[in-house]
Amino acid sequence: MTSVGGNKGKKGKKSNIKSKVVSKSFNIDFAVINKFGLVKVSPPIAAEDLDHKISELTERKNLFTKEGEETLAKQR
């Protein structure tokens, strides 16, 4: 008596486990880390830090805009 199909289980079970692990990790490109350094803001380490870093970057942008307008006004 021969069995058809065997006891192989599902294909791709391991890849589902890998995709869950990968989706939980937070990756940031090295070039982006350098750009954070240019504006003197530390880069986010985890996804939970993104909201705080966005507000910090917005504050730095406003500061740079204000300083740039003051510099232009002095040059005129």
Description:
The chain has a domain at 48-76. The termini are far apart. The chain has 76 residues and is mainly alpha-helical. It has three helices and no strands. The longest helix is centred in the last third of the chain and has 26 residues, at 50-75. 62% of the residues lie in helices and 0% in strands.
**Which range best describes the helical content: under 10%, 10-25%, 25-40%, 40-55%, 55-70% or over 70%?**
55-70%
- What's the average pLDDT? 81
Counting DSSP E segments of at least 2 residues, the number of strands comes to 0
What percent strand? under 5%
Order of helices and strands: HHH
**Major β-sheet, in short?**
none
Low-confidence sequence ranges: none
Compute the number of helices.
3
Shape: elongated
Q: Pairing-aware structural class of the strands and helices?
A: mainly alpha
Distance between the termini: 96 Å
Radius of gyration, Cα only, in angstroms? 25 Å
Entry summary:
With 76 residues, the protein is mostly helical. It has helices spanning 13-24, 30-38, 50-75.
SSE map:
Blueprint: H1 13-24, H2 30-38, H3 50-75
Quickly list its features.
76 residues; mainly alpha; 3 helices
